[in-house]
Amino acid sequence: MAPWTPLTPRLSDALGSLSARLLVAFLLPTLLFLALTGTAVYALARGILEDELGTSLTAIAAATATQVSGERMLTIEPGDDTMGTRTWRNLVRLLTDVRDASGVRRVYVVDTRGQVRADVGGGLPVGTEVPELARDRLELSRVFSGQRAASQVLFQGSDGQLYKTGYAPVRREGEVVGAVAVEGSAAFFGPLARLSRGFAAASAGALGVLALVALFTARGLARPLSRLMDSALRIGRGDLTTPVPPEPTREIGVLARELEVMRGALESRDRQLKLMLAGVAHEVRNPLGGISLFSGLLTEDLKAGATAEAAGHVARIQHEVDYLQRIVEDFLAFAREQPLSRASVAASELLWEARGLLTSDAAQRQVEVRVDAEEAVLEADGSLLTAAVVNLVKNAVQATPPGGLVRVTGRGEGSHYTIRVEDPGAGVPEAERERIFEPFFTTRQKGTGLGLPLSRKIARAHGGDLRLVPTPGVTCFELTLPRAAQPPPP
């Protein structure tokens, strides 16, 4: 049982790491899912909102550009803003109305060289180049070719907020002579950031709940596994009497039931071994005592020259030695696991062969053995099966009074073949019917108590069984065996 001891820390470590493994199994996929999903949703929402802002700003710029006269815009020269010329004032009034109506931060008009003609919200004087236009050169090239465009990147204003610019071309007689620029704030990033923080908080809460679920699940699994481990360690230490408690969980319950079956088998095996050892010690002690007694008598007779008496003592010693030999053979036959050499066996021939082997014993006891067997084919080990039937018939002959009849019948019943051995003996007392198949249990003075257990072992090895059938007036043992699937070829 010592090999079980080193398993204790390993099993404890395995149970201890179960919680951590379940936590990882629960939390890691969920964390990855939430992180990837949150990042993807945030990026998607930001991209959609940026595109929507750019579309709105370019629409405002296009609507404004339709109200700006390209010819009059080109007449605005540096210094008109300080003098407040009528053309400049009209353009500034238009841009101011657009800014106030749309809520944007800045609206300005530039020519194709990027110089300001009017700037509302930016404060740049007429003729000044706008620095931000260098960032949006690609977009401006599209605008000056007659298309709308919005800046691809957000830029940060002096107030710390993010902004985007939409552009639309200003035309004079179909020719692009400038552009209207509209700067709008990306104010949606505030609610989007709050939404992102809320999602992160909700994800953390969900992860916390999952962690608790994983912890409770791990405990629910670890406790029955710990009980199962304790039962296995008890069995390993040699405690075969304490039952393995059942478990409600299906999978662990199956393990518990199988462990209980194993414990019961080991307990039964241990009990049989103890009975066998006790039986062997008891059975061997008697012939050894007789051998010792007659050996002493033989020595005295040889010294006295009594050869006739010495010959009788030698015969008694030989008889006891033969009995010891039979005990050893029966013990080995019961203890060893004999492989079956299956072959097609005719059932009726097997019964007649068993009868022939016991003809001498039956004649000495003046007992008739009558065989009535139906023809059938068994797929079996003929020698082992003959030994089982011989044991049954021999017990019946020994239990039958002189002049009695032992009946051996064989009948096919469906997929099985049943052999019944009946004798008119005294029968088996009810109190002993459960013990007659225990090794070394016998009511005879010179019996080993291994005949019936060995016969049952042989029957079960063939897929059959041996049982005592309570029948009024007779003792009946019934040996059931499976029939061969196909008859042998002729």
Description of the structure:
Mean pLDDT is 79; it is low at 1-9. The protein has helices at 7-67, 70-75, 80-83, 86-102, 137-144, 189-236, 250-304, 307-335, 347-357, 359-364, 382-399, 451-461, and strands at residues 106-111, 116-120, 149-150, 155-156, 162-172, 175-185, 343-346, 368-373, 377-380, 405-413, 416-423, 465-471, 474-482. It folds into 3 domains: 1-239, 2-Layer Sandwich (Beta-Lactamase); 266-334, Orthogonal Bundle (Helix Hairpins); 338-482, Heat Shock Protein 90. The protein is rod-shaped. The protein is of the alpha+beta class and 490 residues long. The strands form 3 sheets. Strands 1, 2, 3, 4, 5 and 6 form a 6-stranded antiparallel β-sheet that branches. Strands 8-10-11-13-12 form a 5-stranded mixed β-sheet. Strand 1 and strand 2 form a beta hairpin. The two termini are 55 Å apart. The protein is built from 12 helices and 13 strands.
Short description:
This protein has 490 residues and is an alpha+beta fold.
How are the SSEs ordered, and which strands pair?
Blueprint (H helix, E strand, L loop, with lengths): L6 H61 L2 H6 L4 H4 L2 H17 L3 E6 L4 E5 L16 H8 L4 E2 L4 E2 L5 E11 L2 E11 L3 H48 L13 H55 L2 H29 L7 E4 H11 L1 H6 L3 E6 L3 E4 L1 H18 L5 E9 L2 E8 L27 H11 L3 E7 L2 E9 L8
Parallel strand pairs: 8-10
Antiparallel strand pairs: 1-2, 1-6, 3-5, 4-5, 5-6, 7-9, 10-11, 11-13, 12-13
Helix pairs in contact: 1-6, 6-7, 7-8, 9-11, 11-12
